[in-house]
Write a structure and sequence with these properties.
Order of helices and strands: HHHHHHHHHHH
Oligomer: single chain
Helix content: over 70%
Number of helices: 11
Distance between the termini: 34 Å
Number of strands: 0
Radius of gyration: 26 Å
Strand content: under 5%
């Protein structure tokens, strides 16, 4: 009877350990997502880069050719720096900064975070110059500031972007919160990052639309936007390319199948929650290494 009870107790203990072992699993070093899952990843990344290159080409052609080029003299040419730099900074640099954690899937996470922050710093520099250009132009031309929906959405978005940058830098790069607090902050940081990408896209679309109406008012021999002259096509396709880019980036960074690969041999390569998993497994009584550590 005692032997039978011991066998039953042993079986119950193993059964209790097994669900816990299955609750949290870490992919072994060198593993990756199944090929079927990743088959669309690189084509989508390529599509996003084709879209954003098209965005930059159209933005440069529109502002440089149809809007008359660039200057720093308070004229309309100075205004042209505003859409170009905002698109360069807040669409391209920021969108690709988000993608860094997906593209560099196996690289050291500190290096990727540094690239992520540097690209966002470039976005802020572009944004500051772009805002300076538009305010200088408005003030010199006697045009009121902050009266359009574009400006009402755009300026708060840029301020929120700067706050997100500061919060992310302090929380995840330097001086860096402890692991528990980073794990608590990370979901909000990710959510706000994707939300900002959406707000940036909305701001860009409203700004492009505003400028197209102002540039093609019709009458007095001027082109009319509703008649769809060539400039209208350039501006409209620019907006569509921004939407396509933002949608692809948003999908890539929110799809769970495309998360960074987990390498238990290097905690800095792991998502924050995986470091906790590693500690959990080291306490698993079924793990022989746990007994060795206890010794």
């Amino acid at each position: 009877m005692m032997a039978s009870e011991e066998i039953q107790t042993s079986n119950n203990s193993e059964a209790a350990v097994e669900p816990r072992r299955n609750e949290r699993t870490i992919q072994p070093k060198g593993s990756s997502q199944p090929a079927a899952t990743m088959s669309a990843f690189y084509p989508l990344v390529l599509a996003s880069q084709v879209a954003v290159v098209l965005v930059l080409i159209l933005a440069g052609y529109w502002t440089g050719h149809y809007l008359g080029g660039f200057a720093w003299d308070g004229s309309a040419k100075e205004f042209n720096l505003h859409p170009l730099l905002m698109i360069l900074g807040l669409v391209f640099f920021y969108g690709d900064a988000i993608l860094m954690f997906r593209i560099f899937r196996k690289e050291n996470k500190t290096v990727v975070k540094t690239i992520h922050m540097l690209m966002q710093a470039l976005a802020i520099i572009c944004g500051v110059i772009a805002l300076k250009a538009v305010f200088r132009f408005h003030n010199k031309a006697g045009i009121p500031n902050m009266y359009t929906l574009h400006s009402w959405v755009g300026l708060p978005t840029f301020i929120l972007f700067c706050l997100q940058f500061i919060g992310g830098f302090v929380s995840f790069l330097y001086p860096k919160l402890n692991e528990t607090r980073r794990a608590a902050v990370l979901p909000y940081h990710k959510f706000l990052g994707v939300t900002l990408l959406g707000l940036v896209s909305v701001t860009a679309l409203t700004g492009i639309n505003n400028k197209l109406f102002f540039a093609m008012p019709g009458g007095e021999g001027k082109e009319k936007y509703s008649s769809l002259p060539p400039q209208a096509y350039v501006g409209n396709f620019l907006g569509l390319a921004i939407v396509i880019y933002a949608v692809i980036v948003g999908f890539l960074v929110t799809c769970e199948d495309y998360k960074r690969e987990q390498d238990a041999s290097n905690p800095e390569k792991l998502p924050l929650t995986t470091a906790e998993m590693k500690q959990f497994q080291s306490m698993d009584p079924a793990d022989p290494s746990a007994g060795e550590g206890a010794k």
